[in-house]
Specification:
heterodimer; A: mainly alpha; MetI-like fold; about 0% strand; B: alpha/beta; Rossmann fold; six-stranded mixed β-sheet; four-stranded antiparallel β-sheet
Chain lengths: ~260, ~300
């Protein structure tokens, strides 16, 4: 029963992926363009990419930058956003600053950052950090702002000090919203990671992609796009599972522990 | 002799001879020592309190809010009120008369614009575990189970896990939710949520319960059941209760004293002592002419106010 449900759930996305590959294959065969390899050629290129040691080192470097940038952003942005949501003074101090940074594409800052910090890890990690920070701050802010005043009063009556209320009431109460921000942030981390490597071409997945393009290895280009896409889907799925587990109490379709069936 | 008296079973005998009783003197000395370890000012205040037996004093409290247009709105005007230890006192008035604000001032959640609220002679400067609120909105912690919610206060007060759990399970049973310990607030009905909120507040032993229209969001049937259960629970230890409501029947049924408030600015209209026997049973009370008289009298007073208010 459970297995059949899982199968039924997993089937539509698989069908969609297969459908996309079929359309790609047909389109490519019809167009007969050198820069548009067939889906089959692209998929066939994947194993040799993943078997190459240098490539894997590049992948690892990319993922490391992404993890550090994302981690730092989350650790700094959640407390900042929560504080902004609960303190008018903190909010009015940081709001103008964030409003200026918000609409600027973070990749557009890359040239300046490269000028100051070089083309290495620091510059790229910083860009990822900036990209992730804003959605996490915004959602933490909104989450903290929405916490019911009476809930905080109840905590205060139990003897919780203001800093403890922030950690033990505002944070858990705002967690569903905070994690929504983190989920957006995770995808943005992947995007800014690839973008930064395409601009500051020195190492990483974005660099491999552009190198392949320069050398006319179009099946590698498309294979890399598939790999990056799959990575995005994988990370998002993992995070979503973690999120669902952490905020099970807030899900609308919460399963009743009592069952009469 | 002193030993016998200290046993505590002879409370009544002690009360008969208070001047000579070792028990009384010893108790007083002990209390005085505790007080001295705080400050001399508080000792005097505490002694003054003892004479009056008021646990809560509201002393010329006024509250002014800024409206959205920037004007000052006088929500409470010069309220003075003393609440005796162990009394069930209702604050009754139309919505917007500032009765909840008065409760929040006693809770220490809102500082008064003017005047002072005191508990046991000491000025109220903020919330504290001696005053336990129960809100109309329940304000449960949604990420905690029923048991987790009730245990929260005792754990915060430093009680050991096992002890807090045992106490919480007892309270959960007392409010009639045995078997629901591991449910989350989301899965409970409004009446059940308010039962959890009551247990959660009782769990950390507040001396005063501050109830802010606690049954206002519930349907009539649930409301009646919770009123009965609240009285049964209250009969056990007779904590001081300050109960805000806009229902005349509710106020008369539950209270020793009903503080009637007028609308805009909020003033005390009249204080009515409800002299009905306890323990009270709703079905008997409804037939009791004294109960009916209280209800009708209070409603008439409100009616008179509203007709006179139509003239500007």
């Amino acid at each position: 029963m459970i297995a059949r449900n899982a199968l039924a759930k997993g089937l539509p996305p698989i069908l969609a992926c297969v459908g996309l590959l079929v359309i790609w294959q047909v389109a490519s065969l019809l167009l007969k363009n050198e820069s548009f390899p067939t889906a089959w050629d692209a998929v066939r290129a994947i194993p040799s990419i993943l078997a190459d040691r240098d490539t894997l080192i590049n992948f690892a470097a990319s993922l490391r930058r992404m993890a550090i940038g994302f981690g730092l952003a989350v650790v700094i942005s959640i407390p900042l956003g929560l504080l902004m949501g609960r303190s008018r003074a903190v909010a009015s101090f940081f709001n103008p600053l964030l409003m200026v940074i918000y609409p600027v594409p973070k990749a557009a800052l890359m040239p300046i950052i490269m000028l100051w910090l070089g083309v290495g890890d620091v510059a790229k990690t910083l860009v990822i950090f900036l990209g992730v920070s804003l959605p996490v701050i915004y959602h933490s802010f909104e989450g903290a702002k929405g916490v019911e005043e009476k809930m905080l009063w109840s905590g205060a009556a139990m003897g919780l000090s203001a800093p403890r209320r922030l950690v033990r009431i505002v944070l858990p109460a705002a967690l569903p919203e905070v994690l929504t921000g983190c989920r957006t942030g995770l995808v943005l981390a992947l995007i800014t990671m690839i973008t930064s490597e395409m601009i500051a071409r020195q190492s990483g997945m974005g660099n491999i992609l552009f190198n392949a393009l320069d050398m006319g290895q179009y099946d590698t280009v498309f294979a890399m796009i598939i790999i990056v896409g799959a990575m995005g889907i994988g990370l998002d799925t993992l995070f979503e599972q973690l999120r669902a587990r952490l905020v099970r109490w807030s899900e609308p379709q919460f399963d009743l522990p009592l069952s009469f069936s | 002799m002193a030993l016998v008296r200290l046993d505590g079973k002879l409370d009544r005998a002690v009360n008969l001879t208070p001047a000579t009783s070792c028990y009384t003197r010893l108790g007083q000395e002990k209390r005085m020592n505790v007080m001295r370890s705080r400050s001399d000012g508080q000792v005097e205040a505490a002694l003054a309190r003892k004479a009056a037996t008021a646990i809560i004093e509201i002393d010329h409290v006024s509250q002014i809010f800024k409206t959205s247009t920037g004007e000052d709105h006088l929500a409470l005007s010069d309220i003075s009120l003393a609440i005796e230890d162990g009394a069930f006192v209702s604050i009754l008035g139309p919505s917007g008369c500032g009765k909840s604000t008065l409760l929040y001032i006693v809770g220490g959640f809102v500082p008064p614009t003017q005047g002072l609220a005191k508990i046991k002679g000491g000025a109220i400067t903020g919330p504290g575990p001696d005053r336990g609120p129960v809100f109309q909105e329940f304000a449960l912690f949604p990420w905690k189970s029923v048991l987790g919610n009730v245990m929260y206060g005792p754990r915060q007060q430093g009680m050991k896990y096992a002890e807090a759990e045992a106490r919480s399970r007892e309270l959960i049973e007392m409010v009639g939710l045995k078997g629901f310990e591991h449910f989350y607030p989301k899965e409970l009905s409004g009446g059940m949520k308010q039962r959890v909120a009551l247990a959660r507040t009782l769990a950390y032993h507040p001396e005063v319960l501050l109830m802010d229209e606690p049954f206002g969001a519930l349907d009539a049937h649930t409301r009646t059941r919770l009123q009965n259960d609240l009285l049964n629970i209250w009969e056990r230890d007779r904590k001081t209760v300050l109960f805000v409501t806009h229902s005349v029947e509710e106020a008369v049924f539950l209270s020793d004293k009903v503080v009637m408030m007028t609308h805009s600015p909020g003033r005390i209209r009249q204080i009515v002592n409800i002299d009905l026997p306890r323990p009270r049973r709703r079905t008997e009370l409804l037939l009791d002419p004294r109960y009916q008289k209280y209800v009708v009298e209070i409603e008439r007073m409100f009616d008179d106010d509203s007709t006179s208010e139509t003239q500007p």
